[in-house]
Known about the structure:
Elements (H helix, E strand, L loop, with lengths): L1 H17 L12 H25 L22 E5 L3 E2 L13 E2 L4 E7 L5 E5 L6 E5 L3 E4 L25 E5 L2 E5 L16 E9 L2 E9 L3 E5 L9 E6 L9 E2 L4
Antiparallel strand pairs: 1-4, 1-7, 2-3, 4-5, 5-6, 8-9, 9-12, 10-11, 10-13, 13-14
Helix pairs in contact: 1-2
Amino acid sequence: MTKRILLTLMLAALALTACGGQATTDPALDPVIAMTSAFATVNASFTQTALAIYTNTPAPTETPLPPTPTQFVPTVTLTVMVKVAANYRFGPSTIYAGPGGARSGKVLEAIGRDASGQWLLVREAGGKKSSWVNIIALEVQGDINSLAIAPVELIFTANYPAPSNIAATRNGDQVVITWGDVPLQPQAIHRDSHYFLEVWLCNGGALTYTILSTNDLFISVTDQPGCAEASHGLLYTATREGYSQPATIPWP
């Protein structure tokens, strides 16, 4: 179709040129300008078509839920609708990575909640795979307090190793942890979290459990003296598929 249009335009321009006569100053009658305009129009058509194809390619926002690693059996389920595009997470916090997200308008089934009631464990209605979504993105039908508090267990992948060359150095109460990079395939990269840490830190005489995530190859934590139990920690590679097996941090 495009070839026919170009051929017609070229023949028309040649016909105008063959008529001879005085060169016109009217751009609308100038065959050279007419041809330039025609090519620009066709080129713009190509460009718009290409952009339309790219723009209309579905964005990776609708992703299957990962498998739930526990035998958690819900006692109550509630119907929920996604009000705004929401991220799935492997745990009830934005610190956790996740496999993707759900589009607005999607209807899911809530099967559990965290202790604060700010995160719900959801799945496809009657499905066996679940993930966590923040309640602010959901419209819930029913009382969320009727949902059982669900356990949090990490999803693991065998496709990526834990970081290596881990080191930790102490300067007073500050401990700096460093490690080597673990390259990921593009489809496995989670933009918010490349590495995930579980650390048990001494603060105010009590050992506290803390989760952390980062895209860097280092992180600094505060660890005070005075606890009966020794501080310690684990480091994981975080991906959209799940987490690597943990590596022990050599605590200083």
